[in-house]
Design a protein that fits this description.
6 helices, single chain, 176 residues, Arc Repressor Mutant, subunit A
Length: 176
């Protein structure tokens, strides 16, 4: 297939390619990426490292300072009840605090605790370290291109399936 280097590595070779051209390759590679993400979660997770849900909530709170459940749900592209359950679990672990909203005491405002911010920073450092190690042979131009394409893909997903804000590496209101 033009533009795709042949490999015998599982997940990148001709056995997983299809006749869909670049879209077919992207489809398969995204499935492999999801599998690899799960593989890294199982094999490389360090003590104190947050799971994906906790990490993304704490990153969002790091950008927003505080938010109610509905705002977090919008930023994360999730259902408010799902975010509510995840926030409750984080509160039980002492990673976030919930306080009544000053303008509506029926609503809770969530913010990260110092421990939550520390664990998010640890998780970020560990994840970036693994990524840096995996991509050690890549030049700066390739890294920048890959980062840009991932951000562009995630922005397309967000624009198509999410409403409102979404989370990225620079802030909640920009494409990721």
């Amino acid at each position: 297939m033009a533009g795709v280097q042949e490999s015998r590595t599982v997940g990148t070779g001709p056995a997983l390619a299809d006749d869909g051209g670049p879209i077919g390759v992207i489809d398969v590679q995204l499935a492999v990426t999801a599998r690899n993400t799960e593989l890294l979660r199982r094999r490389a997770r360090e003590p104190g490292e947050l799971d994906r849900a906790a990490y993304l909530i704490l990153r969002a709170l790091g950008r927003l300072s505080s938010a109610d459940i509905n705002e977090l749900a919008t930023v994360l592209g999730l259902d408010a009840s799902t975010v509510g359950r995840q926030v409750a679990a984080l509160a039980d672990q002492g990673l976030v605090r919930r306080e009544p909203a000053p303008d509506d005491r029926r609503r809770s405002v969530v913010s990260a605790t110092a421990d939550g911010r520390d664990r998010a920073a640890l998780t970020s450092a560990l994840r970036q370290g693994r990524t840096r190690e995996l991509l050690a042979g890549w030049d700066d131009e390739s890294l920048a291109e890959f980062a840009g394409l991932l951000a562009r893909y995630n922005a397309a997903v967000a624009a198509h399936y999410m409403t409102g804000l979404h989370l990225d590496s620079t802030g909640p209101d920009e494409a990721d």
